[in-house]
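Write out this protein's structure.
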Amino acid sequence: MIRKLKALKILPLKHISPSQYYSALNCPYKLVLANTFKYESLLPINANAHFGSIAHKMIELISRGIVVNEESFSECWNDLINKKENELRQKGLGSITPLKYFVSDFALKKNQLRHFLERRKNKIAKHEQKTTNTYFPEVKLTNLDHSIYGIADLIIKNGSSVVILDFKTGKVHIESIDENGGSEKLIKKEYELQLKLYAYLYFLMHNVFPTSLFLITLDNNFIEVPFTQEDCENVYKEAVSFLSSTNSIIEKQEFELIAKPSKENCQYCSYRPACNYYSNWLTKNFEHVNDLGGLLKKVNCFNNNSLGLQMQIGNHEVLINGLTGSLKQGFENLIDKKITLYNLRKSKNAINATANIFTITYA
């Protein structure tokens, strides 16, 4: 697929969500571009990411007591899978369906969700008395002017107790070295900031802080996020300040102050086709990521109806194979023009590359 971008009209940020905040700290320009494109990704999202939203929803349904046995599990599972696959086909991403063939460890992850349900059932069975918990799924939390707002996955109330929970389908810890040189697990900073912001937003809306904050994992682990009211207030004030300073930079169009191109910040960013700072960084660092940008010099046609491109990147001549023959005319019209191909497959320490179903070209 070959795409072209229209001229950018950078818009001010109206708000920021707790789940965006940490990523935005690492590269504020990423959030600026996301906002400009109304959070519509410029690149295909891989099957694992799409599956993550399904797993996330299943955890919510189990936690709320909607999925309670194998019958309801299968019904909700099939419904979510079918809806997601139909959505992908409508977006032109039918090539990654059925999801079971493209999601890593699909069967294992499905079984993990089944185990999550079983542990939930066993936990309930241990309590003879009926629970007095009240469940509030997908609760919108916001400040007065809606400049900071997000949606908490689940809030559980029981009397004066208020628990905010967020579901995570991936790793929630990072390994760190303690002061004695030993290894310790720390909750990822982005999740800590997210829940502390939820806590302060809840306080602004209800004039009381939640009793506790928890992350829930696929293993049915409830991981508490410690907090103080002062912590939450400080994180909130920093987020408000970040929003204000970023909008000031947008107004002055001093984007070089907030663009932070690097492998860590850019390799999974969905907005890198629109980022000139990434494009400039890529010309000198293309060996470290799966994108290539340069002058298209020649289009080679092969007998298997595939194409090979010869590109000039600085002093390097680079070959890209595996593109579909239906793009022949489009690429020939771009000879001697700068193009960038995203989401290629490269061998380690190699500069040549092969296209795949996620590869997209921007001219």
